[in-house]
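Pasting two entries for a bug report.
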Amino acid sequence: MSRTDQDERYAGLATLMDSYLDGDQQAFTELYHRLSPAVRAQIRAKISNPATAEDLLQTAFMKAHGARERFAAPAGANPDRAVAVWYSTIARNATIDHLRKIYRERAVKLDTAGDDTSELLDSMRDPTLDIEAIAVEQERQIGLAGRIRQALAGLPPSQREVVTLHKIEGKSMAQISTELGVREGTLRVRAHRGYKALTELLEGYRSQAAAPAQV
């Protein structure tokens, strides 16, 4: 979309925003009608679950309502476009907060998981999360993702390959069998041994982290 087309799409938003700030409820209704499709699409680009995306849309507009008195178009900016950018920024921050909350919950699960290594590794994958957002959040966690990578690196190559393809990349055993040219039965044995070894490695890392420092 060209800048001219965008300006036409945003035309009149600043006037509506001024009326809204003056208490005109109809102006807010019109703002929501004009802006919600683009904001919803922005959120859905990061969140695949429709119900969650709709909740975040409402959250974004509620946050904007609570902060409406702080809105101010930057000097020299197109005032109509500034309104759209303001709502877009609030929606982006609400989405990031949601993604961070989800990843923190999964990080805690990873750190406290017992012997169910399959479930532990499944929690590293979530189709509702944007890949870039996951990567950013992984780097923010205190060594949790690092411990997973370290544990995977400690497996024999044949076991690590199956575990990575199956649980990290989400491929079926049939797909892996075709890709590697190895019978499914053999792959399942390798996977079983890999999960068992991975659990032991992760438990060892947790024990080391929990041990008191030697003075």
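Entry 2 (this is the one that rendered wrong in the viewer):
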Amino acid sequence: MQTPTAIDHDSLSHKLEQIGKILRLIGWVGIITQLGLGVVAGVMLLFAIAGRNFNQAVAPAVPGIAIGRGFQNATTPGLGIGIFWAVCGIIALLFTAYLAFRQLRFARRLRNPNPELHPKKSEVMRILRIGIIAGFIGMGLTILGGGTAMGVLLSKSIAQPQGVAIYDPTRIIRPLDVLVAMANMIGISAHFLGTIASVATANWLHRQ
């Protein structure tokens, strides 16, 4: 027959094992989601930046446009701001991926038989709260970038005359404009998923 102390110890060990499994699962999901979507958004931004630089390089060769004015018009006004906010959002994604890696380390420490090496609940909650704050900041940055890119696309679509050839490069909707918007949308999705996972984990741990 087990003593109350042995029963309490087994219950505590089972609870710590369960918490470790949850932290490990959320940590891996966070790393794969944040890094995977971050890489996709980064590749889109690289194509957009490469296309932007290429347009700047060939702008002086556009017939009928002065060299100085052609260089400026080779890039879409406002698109650089969208790229900037998207890059900031990707940096925030890398930070949240690092926090997810910290959760994996916590899960590993919980499997250690030495109770002194177990992380404190306050330490785990602090990392989760930082992840939630970072997720909201990342969503805010990518929302700004996505709003800017969508504003550029909307202004171009409104400015395009119907049935008339367009010679002004700033009024043409190009693939790089769409890539910037898509990169920001992917960043918003990645931060949203990471924030939801952190909030759910924090609420679950709070009830334990």
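Dev reply: Rendering is fixed now. As a check, the viewer should reflect this: The first helix runs from residue 4 to 58.
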